[in-house]
């Protein structure tokens, strides 16, 4: 079940929020060539331990929005989006 977000934890280069599923959102440069699987797994396990977190890498685009690539916990690979994101 998707939850209301009651808080956003800011980290040095990312934010973390829980929408019913934990999400780490990190700004990156060069998103198209970024190694989502390697960096996603490193953050998923290294920062968040065994329970992990979905890891979203974002980069501002020319439409004043963001492009996003997602490493999904449980799948342990890049997906088009996580179930709640």
List the helices and strands and how they pair.
Elements: E1 8-10, E2 14-18, E3 22-27, H1 36-46, E4 54-60, E5 66-72, E6 77-79
Parallel strand pairs: 3-4
Antiparallel strand pairs: 1-2, 2-3, 4-5, 5-6
Describe it for me?
The chain has one helix and six strands; from the N terminus they run E-E-E-H-E-E-E. The protein is globular, with a radius of gyration of 12 Å. A hairpin with a 4-residue loop joins strand 5 and strand 6. By secondary structure, it is mainly β.
Q: For the CA atoms, what is the radius of gyration?
A: 12 Å
Task: Give the distance, in angstroms, between the N- and C-terminal Cα atoms.
Answer: 12 Å
What's the assembly state of these chains? single chain
Strands of the widest sheet, in order across it, are 1-2-3-4-5-6
Q: What is the β-strand count?
A: 6
Low-confidence stretches: none
Classify the beta-strand content into a percent band. 35-45%
Overall form? globular
Structural class: mainly beta
- Describe the largest sheet: 6 strands, mixed
Order of helices and strands: EEEHEEE
Q: Number of helical segments?
A: 1
- pLDDT average, as an integer? 88
Please bin the fraction of helical residues. Answer: 10-25%
């Amino acid at each position: 079940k998707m939850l209301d977000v009651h808080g956003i934890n800011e980290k040095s280069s990312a934010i973390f929020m829980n929408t019913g599923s934990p999400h780490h959102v990190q700004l990156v440069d060069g998103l198209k060539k970024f190694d989502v699987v390697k960096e996603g797994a490193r953050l998923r396990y290294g920062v968040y331990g065994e329970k992990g977190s979905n890891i979203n890498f974002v980069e501002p685009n020319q439409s004043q929005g963001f492009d996003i690539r997602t490493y999904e916990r449980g799948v342990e690979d890049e997906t088009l989006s996580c179930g709640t994101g």
